[in-house]
Amino acid sequence: MPTPTDTPAQVIGACPHDCPDTCSLVTTVAGGTAIKVQGNPAHTHTGGVLCAKVSKYTERTYHAERVLQPLKRSGPKGSGRFVPVSWDEALSDIAARLHAIARREPEAVLPYSYAGTMGLVQGESMDRRFFHQLGASLLDRTICASAGGEALAATYGGKLGMRMEFFAESRLIIIWGSNSIASNLHFWRYAQEAKRNGARLVCIDPRRSETAEKCHEHLQLLPGTDAALALALMHELIANDWLDHDYIARHTLGWEPLRARALQWPPERAAQVCGLPVEQIRQLARDYGTTTPAAIRLNYGMQRVRGGGNAVRAIACLPALVGAWRHRAGGLLLSSSGAQPFARARLQMPQLLGDRRPRTINMSTIGDALLHEGGGRFGPRIEAIVVYNSNPVAVAPESAKVAAGFAREDLFTVVIEHFMTDTADHADYVLPATTQLEHWDIHGSYGHTDVLLNRPAIAPRGQARSNAAVFRALAAHMARHDAAFAAPHFQESDEALCRTAVAQTAIDFEELLQQGFARIPLPEAPFADGGFATPSGKCEFDSSALAALGVNTVPDHLPNHEPPTDRHPLAMISPPARNFLNSSFVNVASLQRMESRPLLELHPDDAAARGIADGDRVRVFNDRGEHVCHASLNGRARKGVVVGLGIWWRKLGENGTNVNQLTHQQLTDIGRGPCFYDCAVQVTRMAG
Ligand SMILES: Nc1nc2c(c(=O)[nH]1)N[C@H]1C(S)=C(S)[C@@H](COP(=O)(O)OP(=O)(O)OC[C@H]3O[C@@H](n4cnc5c(=O)[nH]c(N)nc54)[C@H](O)[C@@H]3O)O[C@H]1N2
Ligand SMILES: Nc1nc2c(c(=O)[nH]1)N[C@H]1C(S)=C(S)[C@@H](COP(=O)(O)OP(=O)(O)OC[C@H]3O[C@@H](n4cnc5c(=O)[nH]c(N)nc54)[C@H](O)[C@@H]3O)O[C@H]1N2
Ligand code: SF4
Ligand SMILES: [Mo]
């Protein structure tokens, strides 16, 4: 840790946010205060550039509303009334409460965390050890990527794909279900380089996003119809024999059934389902079948629908059909996280469970789980929940139920946070967490393939503690009730945990200490000569692993759970706003100003049919609830689809809701994921 000094020092860190770019940060510190956070020019993928959000990281860190001391609830649940208490008082009481529940029914305790920080130490180390020792319920962390992730694993054997940097050499780039400019800015820089070298850029997205408008071609399809489009592309590849027969024969499994499936999808049929001009589909097939190298940047935006897993599988088959994998600038990238070398089991210590096998709760149905809906399916009622790195009351689907669950007076709730989020408002105890400038951590990426170290740049603000420090201290208090918590693995420091994460891997910790990042040694073209990590060693068009799960083994188009109806005739998607990171940064004034207020983008025809003008107050509703916001006729929404940009805090919404008031808890075909973009609504104009 740097000692306070008047000479500015520069500390190398890593961006902690749930973003595929995992930038290397340089924080300038003077007199113990962080002055500014910039992109590290020495790190190739960062290239000295940060997004607008993290450029404001000091504004977030020194925010006047940071929680800087432990707080105890003093009013009714959800009232947001708290009084300060000492760490010792808070932790003694929390340990006693958790112990009392756990000695009777350990599964009644539930940890709830996601990717507020992606760091291994602050995200999945001491916390996991603590809950494993307790025997608490396990959490199925499905809220973002599990449909696509498991679909990709069924097809390729893991979350692997093209290296991000080689997109710069591609001749055709299909950006599929991703607003790269908003959510993957450093990939967009490579795509721009390719464009300058003559590459064609195509975007597939129901919304005319910032990215779509900068591509040569935009296929503005209906949400949840990507598999139909992919199958029609295959149909055309077959019909015109734009196939790499040698690659198919040597490196794929199940070509005959996939071929039969694709032949059921002539472009005319897909055009109807997708709401696209048939010629646009034919043109894309021609481009894809005749351009080498061709690359697909698939992202998680398109898998938040019922058939999201099948859609990812259908798209993931395309590169093998044309042999795109033969070239390092060809293939597909959804996630590169499978390349991370970390010793996760050494951090999380699942062996602390012993022979206990706790039930697993799906985080995407936390509303039902807390309300104990589904009865026996969930087992014992959840009596205590410990939330960190997540804001479920704002981000989980069907939030009326999530909020009602968190409002249960009999639920003991601990929230470790930077701010009084919608979730923290419902806590019994709020514990102050450090930000990335204040703690150690180590990071992999799901976009590029480097490992980064985050060094603390400043001392913790107020009484804030890192997540790992909180769980160390909690374990020490638990040890008064249960000696198992006195074991040395509950005392490992944050810096030591960083070393444990890369112990016995190809990553040299000294290199990380010196320059802040290190490269994972990897082949340039992962599947040039096959070598898929599937059971067959091939790209599995037909997946035996899925057969065991009762899922169709050859990808197909599955219609949405909620197709539009007469009562709810508009499909709603709710992708992230550019200047927020999920529900993080929503309270940073300069960024909030850029996003103005909760908006619903509508197509001018859909607006006119409802007498709605730009800026009007509107009521968006379905049978689950209503959300009040303002109409935006900015030309981004297609007919029949509305876009509610996320994810505002509920308490900042006009009627105390956000878009998740409207979303439902049904799950994806593969991976048990949420279906945020598979949602039907109606919209009306409101007075005033
Ligand atoms: N600025 C910013 N960056 C972020 C985030 C953020 O909140 N803000 N969130 C981060 C996180 S957690 C994640 S998971 C990633 C997500 O990264 P991406 O998956 O790239 O997500 P988005 O940028 O939301 O892009 C999703 C796009 O998919 C479109 N879409 C919606 N439904 C469909 C569909 O059915 N088919 C197709 N083809 N497209 C569809 C949306 O209109 C949107 O433009 O981004 C990360 N980066
Ligand atoms: N309608 C709709 N809903 C969505 C989505 C959507 O596109 N549409 N996107 C979904 C996706 S992709 C995702 S990934 C989820 C994201 O959901 P979450 O993972 O819950 O992400 P955030 O909303 O950013 O909340 C993270 C919280 O962690 C806190 N935090 C950050 N760092 C630390 C730390 O070091 N310690 C502690 N204790 N806390 C910390 C932050 O202050 C923040 O409040 O939301 C999902 N919800
Ligand atoms: S949010 Fe993404 S683009 Fe922004 S600094 Fe972090 S890693 Fe880089
Ligand atoms: Mo996500």
UniProtKB/TrEMBL annotation:
Required cofactor names: Mo-bis(molybdopterin guanine dinucleotide)
Keyword Repressor: no
Keyword Iron: yes
Coiled-coil residue windows: none
Ranges of residues in domain 4Fe-4S Mo/W bis-MGD-type: 8-65
Record keywords, A-Z: Iron, Iron-sulfur, Metal-binding, Molybdenum, Oxidoreductase
Family, per entry: Belongs to the prokaryotic molybdopterin-containing oxidoreductase family.
Protein name per its UniProtKB record: Molybdopterin-dependent oxidoreductase
